[in-house]
Structures are given as structure tokens and as C-alpha cells.
């Protein structure tokens, strides 16, 4: 059996994708719509306060295309908190005008392929901060789930540690050449959701997603061992933009 790489886990993640039921949203009275918006506003404020108190992080983006209209990405200390917040949100009148279309449950993960030997990573404040990150407020988000292939001769999980490490080094080098332009949050989901990882990328330039993902396609670890799910791409919604979007 090959040696499993050690992983560090941080906050749990919920990516909650919804479409807006525009016909019901338009149909309700102005009073009900105003009440829904008040409720939504107070949720957004609560989520902001959680970020400020560093007990979690939430960002909201609109999604381009028909797969969804919006995504809430939440990071929290426990699965229970994620569950409570989705249930609380589902009870709002605004949520009655949304249709859940996709969700993804995972946990922020750092693997130790690049770790310095003999150093306790949890003593490194930079690593601890990466496990419990404040989500970036970039203009754009890109999310997709992925697996490492287990098929015939291309089975990631049958490779030895050194071979995997050297491929991950090459992966990391490509990634680092995008430093400052894109921020990745890798969340692990083996045993939690249908794919093995969620990849969430943040950038102020959506074209950077295309360039980075394309370049990585030629790198062995993605070219040979990467299997990918659906891609979701979107634009940041602050409270004001969200309300503008909901104007009818
Ligand atoms: O430098 C480091 O300390 C981290 C090196 C690193 C690891 C271990 C790293 C860097 N990644 C790691 C792990 Mn990544 N990453 C992806 C994708 O579309 C594709 O082809 C793949 C999707 C992108 C775009 C991306 C970007 N990475 C992982 C893992 C876990 C694998 C495992 O454990 O087997 C996955 C699934 C994955 C996928 N990667 C980077 C990036 C970028 C931009 C970087 C540099 C970021 C940085 O240095 O902060």
C-alpha cells in the first residue's frame, strides 16, 4: 500500500448554489419584498460580523450562466454551524424565492507534500492562517470539484510518495507563478461529498482562471490524474450589488 499523505484540516466549507425564482419574487407585494430584503440584509450583516470576529468567513457571488444565480460560500469551525446557518437561512422569506441547485460540503485542507521535515506545521502562524482563512473579496470566483484518477495505469493512489511529491512540486510551481493574481482555497471532501476536492479560485481578472487552469492542464498531475466536475464562475456581490440585483 502506498503511504497516504498527511493533511491538515481547518474550517469546514459549504458552497451553497441557488437560483432565484424571479416569478415568485416579482409576484409578492412590495411590503413582503421589503421585509425579505430586511431579513437578507441582517443575515449579510451577521455573516460580516462572523468574519470580523474571525470565527468564520462568508462571501456571496452572482453566478454567470444557467447553473445558478448566486453562491454563498461559508467557512465555519464545525459542520453543525454550517448546518445551523443553512437551516436558519432556509427559514427566511427571501430563501423561499430561491431554489437550491447545487451544494458542496468540504473542509479547508493543506497537504504536506511541500512541508519542511521535522517542523510542526501548527507552530507556523502562516499555515494556521491558511487553514482558517478570511475569504478574499476579489471581483471574481471560480469553483469546481475534482478527483485524482483511479483508472488502469493512471491511478494516483497507487503511486509512491516521492513520485506524487515531485508532481505536486511541479503543480505548486505553476501555481506560484500566479501569486498575487489568483488565490486558491483547496477544500478536501473525501468522505464528505461526491468529489475528492473542491477548488475555489479568487481573482480580480476572470481571464486569469482560464490561463491558470489551461496551463495546469499540461502539467502531469492535472493532465494525467485530474478529473473535473462542473465549473461555476461569478462576480462578487457586496450588500449593495446584491440589492441592486434583486430590484424588480
Ligand atoms: O506551495 C504550497 O505550499 C502549496 C503547493 C500546493 C499544493 C500542495 C498547491 C499550489 N496546490 C496544492 C494542492 Mn493546487 N490547485 C488545484 C487546482 O485545474 C486543475 O488542474 C487543478 C485545480 C488549481 C487551479 C490549483 C491552483 N491543488 C492541491 C490539491 C490537493 C492534491 C493532493 O493532495 O493530492 C489539489 C486538488 C489542487 C488543485 N495550486 C497551488 C494552485 C495554485 C494557484 C497554487 C499556488 C498557490 C500558492 O502558492 O499559494
From TrEMBL:
Enumerate the active-site residues.
Answer: 144
Keyword terms of this UniProt record: Heme, Heme biosynthesis, Iron, Metal-binding, Oxidoreductase, Peroxidase
Its BP terms in the Gene Ontology are: heme B biosynthetic process
Task: Tell me the name of the encoding gene.
Answer: chdC
Details of cofactor binding: Fe-coproporphyrin III acts as both substrate and redox cofactor.
> HAMAP family per the record?
Coproheme_decarbox_1
Q: Name one GO molecular function term.
A: metal ion binding
Q: Does the keyword Cytoplasm apply?
A: no
Annotated source species: Paenibacillus aurantius
> Which residues are noted in the entry as Fe-coproporphyrin III-binding?
130, 144-148, 171, 184, 222
Please report which protein family the annotation says this sequence is part of: Belongs to the ChdC family. Type 1 subfamily.
What InterPro entries does the record point to?
CHDC (IPR031332), ChdC/CLD (IPR010644), Dimeric_a/b-barrel (IPR011008)
The name on file for this protein is Coproheme decarboxylase
Amino acid at each position: 500500500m502506498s503511504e497516504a499523505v498527511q493533511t491538515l484540516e481547518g474550517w469546514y466549507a459549504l458552497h451553497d448554489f441557488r437560483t432565484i425564482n424571479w416569478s415568485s419574487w416579482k409576484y409578492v407585494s412590495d411590503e413582503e419584498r421589503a421585509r425579505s430584503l430586511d431579513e437578507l440584509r441582517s443575515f449579510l450583516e451577521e455573516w460580516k460580523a462572523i468574519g470580523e470576529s474571525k470565527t468564520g468567513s462568508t462571501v456571496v457571488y452572482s453566478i454567470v450562466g444557467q447553473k445558478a444565480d448566486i453562491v454563498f460560500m461559508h467557512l465555519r469551525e464545525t459542520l453543525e454551524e454550517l448546518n445551523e446557518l443553512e437551516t436558519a437561512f432556509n427559514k427566511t422569506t427571501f430563501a423561499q424565492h430561491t431554489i437550491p441547485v447545487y451544494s458542496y460540503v468540504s473542509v479547508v485542507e493543506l497537504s504536506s507534500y511541500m512541508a519542511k521535515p521535522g517542523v510542526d506545521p501548527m507552530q507556523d502562524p502562516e499555515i494556521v492562517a491558511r487553514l482558517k482563512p478570511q475569504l478574499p473579496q476579489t471581483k471574481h470566483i471560480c469553483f469546481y470539484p475534482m478527483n485524482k484518477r483511479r483508472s488502469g495505469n493512471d491511478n494516483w493512489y497507487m503511486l509512491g510518495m516521492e513520485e506524487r511529491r515531485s508532481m505536486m512540486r511541479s503543480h505548486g510551481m505553476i501555481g506560484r507563478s500566479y501569486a498575487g493574481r489568483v488565490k486558491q482555497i483547496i477544500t478536501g471532501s473525501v468522505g464528505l461529498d461526491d468529489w475528492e476536492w473542491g477548488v475555489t479560485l479568487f481573482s480580480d481578472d476572470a481571464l486569469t482562471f482560464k490561463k491558470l487552469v489551461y496551463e495546469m492542464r499540461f502539467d502531469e498531475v492535472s493532465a494525467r490524474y485530474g478529473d473535473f466536475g462542473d465549473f461555476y464562475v461569478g462576480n462578487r456581490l457586496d450588500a449593495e450589488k446584491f440589492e441592486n440585483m434583486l430590484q424588480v
